[in-house]
Amino acid sequence: MAHLIAPSILAADFANLQNDIEMINNSEADWFHVDVMDGVFVPNISFGMPVIKAIKKHATKPLDVHLMIVNPDKFITNFKKVGADILTVHYEACPHLHRTIQAIKNEGMQAGVSLNPHTPIAVLEDIVQDLDVVLLMSVNPGFGGQKFIENTYKKVIQLRDLIDKSGSKAKIEIDGGVNEKTGAKLLVAGVDILVAGSYVFKSENPLKTIKLLKSLAF
Ligand code: DX5
Ligand code: ZN
Predict the structure, then answer these.
(1) Is the pTM of this model over 0.90?
(2) Cβ(90) to ligand 1 under 6 A?
(3) Is residue 193 a contact partner of residue 6, using CB atoms and an 8 Å limit?
């Protein structure tokens, strides 16, 4: 499978969101990566339902919603209603992760679990079979534009091994500090989906940057 590119709209121009949405629609990107932060699980607040609903109105590609919030269970139905196609929760925020994943699937969405940089891959052993996506944070969640944590490569190799051994169909997604250089190495290590925020939106030509990320070979 060719790898997927998911530009993170956290780095978009919120005063001209429709422009940036059209840019992604017209690009070689595959998904919209949509970061929801609650100021509790992470030390930052991003946006919520009304903004996601507005994005959905214009987006022609799936919405990959990354929840950096406590108690995500409370909002699963709402996220489906506003247009999430893939819903990812944090392992660290879900004491009843199996139940949370089933609830996401029951709403007809793809289910993902995200791990913080310090959380070991082994915690996924008994849930990976049920997942569509595993999102490894390659920065501490909460902000765009941070430096890629090198230990992520090792975790990708461990996760690839766990997925292959368990017969899981989960895709590996990486979020934080992705650029042409880290992206190429991540693909070699076995990654399926690259999220990129500032590398795309702060570049001179975002369309070209997406094309470049999409054309990275491994
Ligand atoms: C960080 C978010 C990321 C962020 C990535 O908490 O989950 O999706 O937008 O931004 P960059 O690509 O700039 O590191
Ligand atoms: Zn994210």
Answers:
(1) yes
(2) no
(3) yes
